[in-house]
Amino acid sequence: MVLTKQYDRHVPEKVFGIIGSGNANNIALLPSTTKSSARRVFVPACENVLLWDLKTHSQINKFVDEASSTSVSKKKTREEVIVVSVSPNGKHLAVGYQNGIIKIFSLTQNETTVNFHGHKSTITTLIFTQHSATLISGSKDTDIIAWDLITEAGLYRLRGHKAPITKVILMESQPVIISSSKDMTIKFWDMTIQHCFHTIVTHRTEVWSIALAHDRYLVTGCSDNELRFFALRSTKTDEDDTFVFPPMQDEKTNEDQVLIHVQSLGSLVRKSKQRVSNLIIDNESRVLACHGMESFGEFFRIATIDEVRTRLRKRFLKARKRRENGDEKNEEEIKIDWDISLIFTLMCEIKFDGKIRAMDLFMDTNMICKIIALTLSNKIDISSLNIQDKTVEQLPSIEKSAHRTEIRCLAFSSDDMLIASGSGESLKIWNRHSCESIRTIPCSYALCCMFLPGDHSVLIGCKNGSLQIACLDSASIIETVQGHEENQSVWAMCMTTDRQSFLTGGSDKKIQFWNFELKDDNENNTKKARKRLSFDQKRSFDVGEDVLALKISPNNRYFVAALMDTTVKVFFMDSCQMFLSLYGHSQPVLCLDISSDSRLVITGSSDRNIKIWGLDFGDCHRSLFAHDDTITAIQFVPKTHLFFSASKDNRLKYWDADKFLHIQTLDGHCGEIRCMSITNNGMHIVTAAHDRSIRLWERTEEPLILDEEKEQ
């Protein structure tokens, strides 16, 4: 029997650094029991749903899809959460995923109670009925399904739309489902006979969202800049409707027993020229919010039914007076000027910090409306709007535990306890155990970073060509040096093994050599002179092409640079003479690494190949077609010939460079992976991606035998 080499299995450990995902369709407020209690909001974040407290700005709970996190051995990709909905009794959370599965979480026990498989593609909308026993779901596969939570089964499927469903809402007074779709129609379904009894076909573009006020007025938003309004008249109830609805144009006979008559009320023009993303009306039907894909939302005040009646009575009396004064011809009926401004009036626009992805609102007091908006800059903005005097107050937003822009670089400290992550606006330091952000240091646009000896400061290479030292004790930038030419990016930096000097390479076609030195710390005017770590330029070396990646061999003899002309060149460290040129990639190499015994070089390129080279003769040992998209990061596990590669295809892969084997694929990110770092003991890997999440992966004791993996 042949002995097969066994490897250690890696598993996902934690996800952090994300407040809400950019693909979320909505956010959902937990129904409050009393007016005074602090409100909480459910926000989709990649494959999880986070519960945030709006008062303390802390994450209270995390709803994880257990099925995908426990079954490690089975090939199970994680699906992204698109839509969430909370039952009116506050006991259940319904979560719709990208693959069409709906999971129901029990909020009291904090676990999945039931999975519904019925849709073929992404869930777009979810809503519970008033008594919380039925869930209605709409999907991109054009179907609407009603699910029973008590028997845990599907009740019926409504087919009729020709394009993806965009939103489903329910009437309170009657068993009617109203659904909108991208096929430009709005359909009314009777839940008792599961049949469509009316279709609005007057829209000329896709209907993106609908909302219902007072159970009587339907608002629709399309791809154009108008909001259209419809009155829903009940045929059953004989209430005094003359003061709520405009007069009917044609008298309907009672032959067709439909539940409601739909009548167009008119339209309002929005300020924005973009399409509507969502229309939201709060529970008490006082405020209508409308937002597109921009950074502002428009807010309309909705008059209460009593207000509408009083206004119409006033107009009625005026018209009667005019008739008595003989201004108008004696007609049988008194005409009332009916227009939409009786009910809906524009209050204000509110600008948010970033494009709005999802929004929800609730009435905090009788006159104050609180607005919660999840923006694409990975934060939750909270505003308070006074509907009486139309004033807006910006409240503190939930943003501490995340970057505003996407993360471009990651680094571990020498004791593996701290993680540094750099993005377009700041450098954050995270504790690896708790995954809490312990420092946020504003800086220039960071492209690469590393901890300096002593782990009290981090060196950042910026997009504008400068090098910045961020001090962790004072949480500030203590020194900025223009290391490369102005506005020429610093793409790579690496330290020598003796930790005495380092190299930087950038798009000004130069490699700079720097030495560390201790300078007097003049900033603190104390009598005791303190020294702080700084650096000084030793020499500069022109390579003639943009430097994209840079590494120094652990034996300190060579440094390897990946250049824009697709070659990788090996130079002697002392004389800067060229030793080898490694060519074979068809597109530029974006990342490289050298094994700790200085024998192997691995390069990852945008041609999706990984090449393994010998550093003694520069021969290519093997070329591996590794990923389905550009390879963005590659790194050896210290003291081994095993390595990890990360790519824009959202995957992290584990390889053996001696046997040229693919060992394991780690799925999890919902966006392209930008950067990666491995601890010095090789136990943890951290990756950051375009989906704004940072993920920590750990090595387990569980063996992984390749033949068994292949059989599975």
What is the secondary structure topology, with strand pairs?
Blueprint: E1 6-16, E2 28-29, E3 40-45, E4 48-53, E5 59-63, H1 66-70, E6 81-86, E7 92-97, E8 101-106, E9 111-117, E10 123-128, E11 134-139, E12 144-148, E13 153-158, E14 165-170, E15 176-181, E16 186-190, E17 195-200, E18 207-213, E19 217-222, E20 226-234, E21 260-269, E22 278-281, E23 287-291, E24 296-302, H2 305-324, E25 344-351, E26 356-363, E27 368-375, E28 379-386, E29 392-398, E30 407-412, E31 418-423, E32 426-431, E33 437-442, E34 446-451, E35 457-462, E36 467-471, E37 476-481, E38 490-495, E39 501-506, E40 510-520, E41 531-542, E42 547-552, E43 558-563, E44 568-572, E45 578-582, E46 589-594, E47 600-605, E48 609-614, E49 620-625, E50 631-636, E51 642-647, E52 652-656, E53 661-666, E54 673-678, E55 684-689, E56 694-705, H3 706-711
Antiparallel strand pairs: 1-56, 2-3, 3-4, 4-5, 6-7, 7-8, 8-9, 10-11, 11-12, 12-13, 14-15, 15-16, 16-17, 18-19, 19-20, 20-21, 22-23, 23-24, 24-25, 26-27, 27-28, 28-29, 30-31, 31-32, 32-33, 34-35, 35-36, 36-37, 38-39, 39-40, 40-41, 42-43, 43-44, 44-45, 46-47, 47-48, 48-49, 50-51, 51-52, 52-53, ...
Protein name: WD repeat-containing protein 3
WD repeats: 116-157, 158-199, 400-440, 582-623, 624-665, 666-698
Main location: nucleus
